[in-house]
Amino acid sequence: MSKFKKLTLIVVVLGALGLASGLGVYFYYASMLPPLFSVQDYDPLLVSEVYARNGEKIGEFYRENRKLVPVEEIPEDLINAFLSAEDSNFYSHHGFNFKGIFRAIIANLTSGERSQGASTITQQAARTLFLSSEKTYTRKL
């Protein structure tokens, strides 16, 4: 067997092992994810309003003073400010900013602590809707 064939065989075997390992990790963590639901099913805590018999509002009860606003009613400048602060590459990635994740990993390993994050708005929404607030690398994965 020539050196080229041996090298090719080694590369193919290592690639297959890497792919199998990656799939194993993916399916392991995927099995622990909560069931998905649609955004239409999202039911946040809202303000409860109390009215008198005559229809006059006499009070409100809430843990968090939230008001749902359709995205069409949010000023474009507010959306742009939010995107600028939270996820400036929102329109150029598909939910994961791999460059930002890699940068944060290097910064965190270099500093010895979790000094940076790299969550996109998509990841932040998924965390809020589906996961706990614990900060672990396995949850991030």
Strand order of the largest sheet: 1-2
Q: Structural class, judged by helices and strands?
A: mainly alpha
Helix content: 40-55%
Range of strand content = 5-15%
List unreliable stretches of 5+ residues: none
Radius of gyration: 23 Å
* Shape category: elongated
**Largest sheet entry:** 2 strands, antiparallel
Helix/strand order, N-terminal first:
HEEHHHH
- Number of E strands: 2
Count the DSSP helices: 5
User: What is the terminal-to-terminal distance?
Assistant: 41 Å
- Quote the average pLDDT: 83
Give the structure's gist in a few sentences.
By secondary structure, the chain is mainly alpha-helical. It is built from five helices and two strands, in the order αββαααα. Strand 1 and strand 2 (57-61) form a beta hairpin.
Structure, described:
- With 141 residues, this protein is mainly alpha-helical.
- Helix content is 48%, strand content 6%.
- The chain has 5 helices and 2 strands; from the N terminus they run H-E-E-H-H-H-H.
- It has helices spanning 3-30, 76-86, 98-111, 121-130, 137-140, and strands at residues 48-51, 57-61.
- It has a two-stranded antiparallel sheet.
- A hairpin with a 5-residue loop joins strand 1 and strand 2.
- The longest helix is centred in the first third of the chain and has 28 residues, at 3-30.
- The protein starts with a helix and ends with a helix.
- The model has no long low-confidence stretch (mean pLDDT 83).
